Amino acid sequence: MNDMSEEAQLKALRNRIDTIDEKLLELISERARCAQTVAEVKQKSLAEGETPVFYRPEREAWVLKHIMELNRGPLDNEEVARLFREIMSACLALEEPLKVAYLGPEGTFTQAAALKHFGHSVTSVPMAAIDEIFREVAAGAVHFGVVPVENSTEGAINHTLDSFLEHDLVICGEVELRIHHHLLVGENTRTDKISRVYSHAQSLAQCRKWLDAHYPNIERVPVASNADAARRVKSEWNSAAIAGDMAIDLYGLTRLAEKIEDRPDNSTRFLIIGNQEVPPTADDKTSVIVSMSNRPGALHHLLEPFHANGVDLTRIETRPSRSGKWTYVFFIDFLGHQHDPLVKDALEKIRAESVGLKILGSYPKAVL
C-alpha cells in the first residue's frame, strides 16, 4: 500500500510539473512574441532614418536585478538570473542576433565570459588578439567585444589598457568570472609519464604552487591560450594542459585534477566594448583615462576632486604614456555615472588639472 501511495504521489507531482512546464512554455512564447513586436517598432525608426538600438545594457541589468529582488527560492538568485539571462538572450536574437568578438580560440575564459554576459543565443566570434577585437568593434564588423582587463591575482591586463589608448570605443558593461583551472589529459595520455604541461602564462602563474607540489619536475610551456593548450594535448601522449571547463567538452579531455588554482578566490574581470553610450541605472561604474605631467603633487591633484565629491574609486592603474616622455597615464574606475552631478563636477575639475581626460564609458555594475 505504501509503495502504491508513493507511486501515486509521484505521478500526481509529475502531472503537476507537466502542467507548469506547459504554462512556462506559453509565457516564454508570449515574451518572445513581445520581443518580435519590439523589433518591428524599432525597424520603423530604421525606415525613418534613425539608428535603432536593439541591445540595451541598462535595461538588461535592471531586469536581472529586479528578478533577483523578487526571487524567494528555492533556487538561489544567481541561478535564477542565469535562467532569465538565457531567456532574454533568445528573445533578443529574434530582434537582431548579436555578433560578439572574444579572445579565442574556442574554449577560452573570455568566451565563457561572453556567454555569461550575453547568453548562448549570440554569435560569438573568436579573435587572435585583444587589439583585433578592438579593431573589429571599431569597424562595425561585430556589435560588441569582450576583453579581459584585470585578474584578482595577476593584476591588470596591459594589452587591454594599451588598446584603450589607441581606439575610441565605449565600455558598455562588465562581467566577473570565477576562474577555475583543471589539469586536463587526453585519452592517449600516459598519466604516469607526463613530462610537460601547456597553458597560458597567467594560468601557469596562478597554479605555480600546486605544480611545485605535485609536478615539480615537468616542463611548463606557455602558449597563446588555454584552449590552444588543450588542443595540443589531444594529440600528445606525454603532456597535460591547464584549462577551464569549456575546454573539456570542446576538445574531449578528462580532468586529472580539478580546481588547482593556488587561490580559491581567483577571478577575472572582463569589459564589454562597443559604440553606444549607456544611460544611468543608479548602480553604475565609470572608467576614465587621465594623462598627467610628471610634477610634484600630480597624483594628489588627480585624486582630490574624487575625495572632495565623495566618489568611490574602485581601481587605479598607471601606464607610461606613448605620447610624451614625461607624461603618465592613469586608468581609473569609480562608482557612479558620468552624468551624475557630483561625478560630472569631479571630472570637470580633473580635466582642468590634467594634460588630457578620456571617458571610456559609464556602465551597469556586473550583475552576474
Write a structural description.
- This is Bifunctional chorismate mutase/prephenate dehydratase.
- With 368 residues, the protein is an alpha/beta fold.
- 43% of the residues lie in helices and 26% in strands.
- Strands 1, 2, 3, 4, 5 and 11 form a six-stranded mixed sheet that branches. Strands 8-7-9-6-10 form a five-stranded mixed sheet.
- 35% of the residues are buried.
- The model has no long low-confidence stretch (mean pLDDT 91).
SSE string, helices as H and strands as E: HHHEHEHEEHEEEHHEHEHEEEHEEHE
Helix coverage percent: 40-55%
Largest sheet: 6 strands, mixed
Number of helices: 12
Sequence stretches where pLDDT stays below 50 over 5 or more residues: none
Q: What is the typical, i.e. mean, pLDDT?
A: 91
Shape: globular
Distance between the ends:
48 Å
Strand content: 25-35%
SS content category: alpha/beta
Computed CA radius of gyration, to the nearest angstrom? 24 Å
Number of strands: 15
Topology overview:
Layout: H1 2-47, H2 57-70, H3 77-95, E1 99-103, H4 109-118, E2 123-127, H5 130-139, E3 144-151, E4 155-156, H6 158-166, E5 170-178, E6 182-185, E7 196-200, H7 201-206, H8 208-214, E8 219-223, H9 226-233, E9 239-243, H10 245-251, E10 254-257, E11 267-274, E12 284-293, H11 298-308, E13 313-320, E14 327-335, H12 341-353, E15 356-364
Parallel strand pairs: 1-2, 1-3, 7-8, 7-9
Antiparallel strand pairs: 3-4, 3-11, 5-11, 6-9, 6-10, 12-14, 12-15, 13-14
Helix pairs in contact: 1-3, 2-3, 11-12
